[in-house]
Structures are given as structure tokens and as C-alpha cells.
Amino acid sequence: MIGNFPYIAVAILIGLGVYTLIFKKNLIKIAIGITLIESGANLFLITLGYRKGAVAPIYTQAPEGMTMVLPTPQALTLTSIVIGVATTALILSIAMIIYKKYGTINTDEVRRLKE
Amino acid sequence: MKNEMSRIVRTVTTLIYGFIIVYGFYVIAHGHLTPGGGFQGGAIAASAFALLVVTYGDQGVKDFLKKDILSLVESTGLVLFIAFAFFGLGVTFFYNFMANSGGLFGNSAIIGINPGDLNTGGIIPIMNIAVGLEVLAALGVIILTMSVGSKNTKKKENS
Amino acid sequence: MSSILTHSPALVMALPLLAAFLTPVVGRFNRKILGWFISVILGLTLGITILMAIQILTNGSMIYVFGGSEAGLTLPSGYTVPIRIIFHIDAMGIFMGLITAVVSFLAAIYSLSFMQKESGLEKYYALLLLLATGMFGMEFTGDIFNFFVFLEIASISSVALIAFRSTLSGEPAEAGYKYMVVSSISALMVLFAVGLFYGQYDVLNMATIASVMQFTQLDKIALILLVTVLSMKAGSVPMHMWTPDAYSEAPAAITMVLVAASQASLYALFRVSFSLYNISLNTVTIGWIIIILGVLSMFIGVTMAIIQKDIKRLMAYHAISQTGYMLLGVGVGLAVLANPVALDSFGIKAMEGSIFHIMNHAMYKGLLFLTAGALFYRTGTRDLNKMGGLANNMFYTTIFFIIGAAAIAGIPPFNGFASKLIIYESVYKFNPLLSIIAMLVSILTLASFVKVFHSAFLGPKLEQYKKVQEVPKSMLFAMATLACIIVLFGLFPDVIVKNLVHPAVMALINQTNYTATILGGI
Amino acid sequence: MKKSIFAIALVFFVAFMLVAAFGMRIFGEPTVSEMDDYYIQNAQAETGANNVVTTIVFDYRGFDTLGEATVLFTAVLGITALFREAAK
């Protein structure tokens, strides 16, 4: 049970993100929900790369005789964090444009494209 | 409503924003030795831009952070990055042709734990610098555009 | 010449990327040559893609290791796991690559005059190049994390392009927002699936995962996640709400590329279910799930389309119903993958029909959207009730519209008929009811396009459209090429099926060949 | 009515995630790590850099980073396109 605590944290984070996405009506809150899911996915990637009692995989002045952590998840998470920044910046600027044009960011009033 | 911060914030910002940018470039330049690299260093330097925009407002920053210079820096960073990927095309795309080749950034590192020699790593430091410039300028443009964009949405509200 | 060929996978990706990076700089100097510069670049990419297609169809799939000491060296000495990013382009990948290349080239030509009055043109062209690169990356890559990165590039650039016209009115921004939410969720769930695979097998290459996988509980979860999320991106029914808004708000040339982009995620769905999992999972249930998705898409797409009055929303709903045909064909193929007797008698035929339908759909749906764009370019409205009698003064556009409408409805001389006929035959052998539904939907499609033709083109010449004349040459050229391709495919379908579609289906079906090319038969 | 469908979907999804959480191997003991051991042993020899993660980001998986810098570039293009002033 203790072994997969981080994965339970991931499940909770993604669950919270999906909850805000489905039930919240405010555009900014939906953007926050997506960021929550994104941080959950990043946490999941990073926790896969840990090795018990290991050190960061950098050889400059590394402590003697220690094993090293798996390096690939760190590279993958770096990429997905920058992608997260890009998507959040774009979503928030679209929400700003919608506010500029419709004067509201509540999804019920914004629903012009009904049929 | 003057949106500038109080005097304390402005004096502190004028003092430290230079150091933040220098620290950002340190993280970019030593990407292949110490933890960090192009993206992290670029983000640190861009945080200095955010600090300036918050304290002086995007009108006050207009002479220091011009958007077209930033987009020029961004394009040069990206073109530098993909050019060094193209140079490796003799063998394959993204081939590290400068590693262990003796020239610039060409020394081969001492295997195992070593104090770290800046002149190693082949095309990795150059790509670090290219991506650092790109992220620095890209985040700068995003901060400026969104701060300008968010201002005139308020006007729409009371019209 | 041969060195261009060995490095062609990298060139096809790097050329549009380099052009996209230079576009803001080129655009600042002079805006006039910008459109031509982009069209030349996309033309070159189309040329390289055709070169690669000939190479792949003659002697097997192509591998390119990025940064490796040699283009073909996939495994480092003494290791059984590839460590670099490998592009693995087989017949199916290049089949989709050809669609992307043709569609993006024609979109660039079409926007030469279609986007003339818009501001911020260099951003539009750079985003078009990046969308094309994203789609190429999704179709050619052999590495699942790389697939996630290119899926993200394609999504963000298509969101920016959908919301391109939001300076005038608010609807494009709202359509862009909806599409952004959908593609963010799907990209993050793909990332979660990548985490599941990496956590268990510590490998990111698709072929290696396929050979190393033991179908644990987690792999089934990853499969369900990937299938739901990729069919959401491909616009199949239960999650299709974004398609009508996104397709109708984007500029016409971009809608054509968006159709090909959602087909790229359909290709990813096939790649996951055939090359990653293949016979190991009980293909009958997954096959039937995809069939049900297909039938639902077909039916709901066409019934919603009939009641539309905005021409582009109507065509968007038809796009959903046509995606249903593709899902149906491949679903039948997947359902019978396990027993070879049924597979040979009609399974392969069904898959050939649906994959051929992907190409045909990209062509005639693109043509229809371009004609809708031409109507919008001249009359300024997309509402069918306001249009009328445009046949008298927009002669060529009417001809192209008739060709497109006939092709989508499956009328004999055109390509829509060719692929639908193969689907009807093979699906009939599998389960007669499904093919009857398919035929019924095809008739409803014809009915709704006759309605569009009547209200937009026939009838008396309305006074406000008196001075409307034909659209400029570059738009006509784009529509004319699509029309020729449609007629060409319609007249000689067996030539296309034999040496383009059949190898693609074979590349999808035998997974051992897919893994052998990377791992050298381990 | 719609709310209850969403609520059921949410509960199903979270249960889905928890099953994945409990199914995954123990945190801290990677069962297979052949690819990563290759990086740790050979990164210094092949590229000369000390930071193994940076060698992966820029050399072994450099194409990912090119794709990712493009993602940032696309976002900047999208945002500047959104906030441009309309055609005169």
C-alpha cells in the first residue's frame, strides 16, 4: 500500500482536474482544471523514474559510490511542462478574447453556437 | 488609477532584475554540467521580465522590452537550433558532430565523477544557448501581449 | 539523389519547420512574396513525400534514426532496446503522409487569394506550416512520446488557426476554446498512457513495446484510454461536439487541413490497435466497439446534417458521418483479425475500403469546404437561406460543388463510390444489417446535398449578388486539382487500391513485420 | 439529468485511475531499466557532457526538444495572432 502512495496522489489530482472540468461553468476555472490534470500527469511521469536511495544523474561533483536515478522521465517531464505552459497561455488568452467579445466568461451565456 | 507599485518595490526591482537575468544566463550556459539548461535558464530570465512588467506596467517597460526585438531574438534562437541540427545532416539529423572532436566545446569529459569542464558536450551547449534565447524571448512576448491584451478588456466592461 | 532519399524523413519534417521559423522575419520585409514562399516550401515537401512513397512502396518500410551514427542503426551494440527517436514510415504512414502533403499544399495555394484581406498573414502561414509539420510527425514517428509532442503541435496550431478570425466576432474564439479543451484532455491522457508503458517496460519505441508487452491490467487501461481519446480527436460520435463549431469557424482552407488532421488521429487509433496490440487482445470486443462508434457516427452525423442551415456546419456533420464509414470498415477488419479464414474472405477487403475511403474523404470533403469558402468569399455569408441563384455567375464553383457532392453521396463515376462499394460488399458478408445502414446513410447524404445545391446555386439571380463574379485563379486552381484527383480515383480505383491501399493494409495487419524492422527479428 | 451522467462518468474515471495506481509497480523499484542504464553509462563517453538529463534532452532525444520549442513558438504565434488589431 505504502509503495504506490504517489500514484494515488496522481489519481486524486487527475480526478480533481476532471471534476473542475466537468462541473465548473467559468472559463478560467476550466483552464485551472486542465492545469490540474497536466500536473497530475507530470507527477505520474516523474514518480516512475525514482530509484530508492539514488542520486541525480549528474557527474559533476556527484557523491562517491551512489547509484543514479532514471534520467528519461526527467527529460519527458521537462518537455511536457513547457507544453503545459504553452497550452495554458493559449487557453487563458482565448478566454480573454471571449470576455472581450461577449462581456462574460460563464459558459452558459457564451453558448452562441447552439444547434 | 496609477497601476505602478510602491517606491520600495520599484527600487528593489531596479536593483535585482539585472542579477536575475545574469543568473538565468548562468543556468543556460552551464546546462550540460550543472542541473538546468535552455528551458530552465530561459524561464528564470523571463521571470525578470515579468517582474519589470508587474512593477512598471507594460507602458513603462515599452522602451526596454520591445516586442519586435523579442520576436526577432526568438526567431534567431530557433533558426540557430535547427541550423545546428541540420549541420549534423552529413551523418543523420541531430547528430552531435562536435562531441569529442577537439574544437569548440569538443573536449571529452573525464569519465566518472569530475569537477566539470565547460568546454565539453559538443553541440549541447550551443543548443542550450539557442533554446535559452528562444524561451526567454517567447515568454517575454507572451507576458507583454497578455498584459496589453488584458488591459483593454476592462474598457469593454464599462462601455 | 540517394542521399536526399536516405535523409528524406528528416527533410520532410525540417523543411516546413525551418520555413515556419523564418516566416515572421520574411513577413516583416515584404508580405507579397510570403504566400508564394510558403507554397514553394509545401510544394517541395509534397515532392519529397512522393519520392518517399515511391521508395517505400518499392522496397519496404523506411527507418530514420535521429542523431544516430547511421540512418538505419536502430539498436546500440549489445543492447536490445533502441535509445534514440526512430521514424518508422511504413506503407500506411506514407499513405497518410501523402494526404497531408497534398491537402496542406492546396490549402497554401487557396489562401493566396482567400486570406488577402486579413491582417497578421505571416502568423497564419507559419501556423499552417506548423500544423502540416505536426500532422507529418504524428504519421511518421515510431516513438510514442514523440507522437504526443507532435499531437500537441497539431492541436495548438489548429486551435490558433480556428480562433484566427476572432478579431471580428466572438464565435471563432469560442470554437477554438472548445477544441483546445478537447485536445488538451486527449493529449494529457496520451501522456498518461505513455507513462503506463514507460513505467512497466522502460522503453518508448512503439515496435519495442509491441514486442515486449505482456497485456497486464495496466496495458488494458492504456488501450481503453488511447482508443477513447483518439476517437474523440478523430471526431467520432459520443465526443463529436467540437467538430461542427471548429470546422465552421475556421477559414475554409484550414477546415480542409483540419479534416486531414482528425484523420491523422484516426490513423493513430489504427496504429495503436493494430501495431501495438494486434491479435493479443480479444479483437472481437474492440472491433465491435469501433463498429458501434462507426455506425453511431454515420447515423447521427447525417441526421444532424439535414437540419442545418449554415453550409459549413452541414458539411462538418457530414464529415462526422463519413468518419463513421472509416471506423465501420476497420472495425470489421479488427473484429475478424483473429480468424484468418474470415480475414482473407472479407476482413482485408473491408479495411481496404475504409482506408481508401480516408483518402477519398480527404479529397472530396476538402473540395466541398473550398467551394463553401468560395461562396463565403463572394457573398460574405454562410447561411443557406440568404444565398440563391449563384450558379449563373459562379460557373466553375458550381461544377466543383457538383463533383464534390456527387463524390460524397457515392455516385458511380467518382471516388466516393469506389471506396463505399468495397465497404458495402465486405461489411455485407460480415453482417448484412450494418451495410444496409451504410447504404441508407449514403442516400440521406445525397438528399441533404441536393437541398444545399438547390438553395445555394439554383433559383432566380438575387439582386444583391448581381455583380458577384468568379473567384480568383489561385482558389480555382486548388479546387480544380482536387476535382481532377477525385475523378481520377473514381475512374481507376483498382490501380490505386492495388499498389497504394493494399500495401498500407498489409503494413497495418502484420505486426511481426512492424517489430522486425526495428528490432531486427529479435 | 446531464449532471448525473457526468457524475457517474467522473466516478468511473477516478476508479479507473485508482486501479491503474494500485496496479503499477512499487514506487522506487523500477523492474526494467535497460535503456536508462545505457544513458547513465554511455552519456559521458558519447557526448562528453556531465548532466545525463541534458544529454537526453538535447542529444539522444533532441528531436523531441525541437518539437517542443516549436510548441512554444506556436503558442506565441497563436497569442500574437489573437491579440492583433483587425485588418484596417
What brief labels describe this structure?
heterotetramer, C: 522 residues, mainly alpha, two-stranded antiparallel sheet, 76% helix, globular, D: 88 residues, 75% helix
Structure characterization notes:
The complex is a heterotetramer of chains A (115), B (159), C (522) and D (88). Chain A contains 4 helices and no strands. Chain A is an all-alpha fold. Chain B is mainly alpha-helical and 159 residues long. Chain B has one domain. The longest helix of chain B is centred in the last third of the chain and has 36 residues. The two termini of chain B are 18 Å apart. Chain C is globular and about 75 Å long. Chain C has a domain of 210 residues. The longest helix of chain C is centred in the last third of the chain and has 40 residues. Chain D is built from 4 helices and no strands. The interface between C and D is large, with 52 and 40 residues.
Radius of gyration of chain D: 22 Å
> What is the first-to-last residue Cα distance of chain D?
48 Å
Largest sheet of chain C: 2 strands, antiparallel
Shape of chain C: globular
Low-confidence stretches of chain D: none
Number of strands of chain D: 0
Which range best describes the helical content of chain C: under 10%, 10-25%, 25-40%, 40-55%, 55-70% or over 70%?
over 70%
Helix/strand order of chain C, N-terminal first: HHHEEHHHHHHHHHHHHHHHHH
Name the overall outline of chain D.
flat
**Number of DSSP strands of chain C?**
2
Strand portion of chain D, in percent? under 5%
Mean pLDDT of chain C: 87
What gap, in angstroms, lies between the N and C termini of chain C? 33 Å
Strand content of chain C: under 5%
Low-confidence stretches of chain C: none
Summed up, the helix count of chain C is: 20
Percent of residues in helices of chain D comes to over 70%
Strand neighbour order, sheet with most strands of chain C = 1-2
User: How many domains, in number, for the residues of chain D?
Assistant: 1
How is the topology of this model organized?
The complex is a heterotetramer of chains A (115), B (159), C (522) and D (88).
Chain A: H1 5-23, H2 27-47, H3 72-102, H4 107-110
Helix pairs in contact in A: 1-2, 2-3
Chain B: H1 7-29, H2 38-60, H3 67-87, H4 123-158
Helix pairs in contact in B: 1-2, 2-4, 3-4
Chain D: H1 2-23, H2 34-47, H3 52-60, H4 62-82
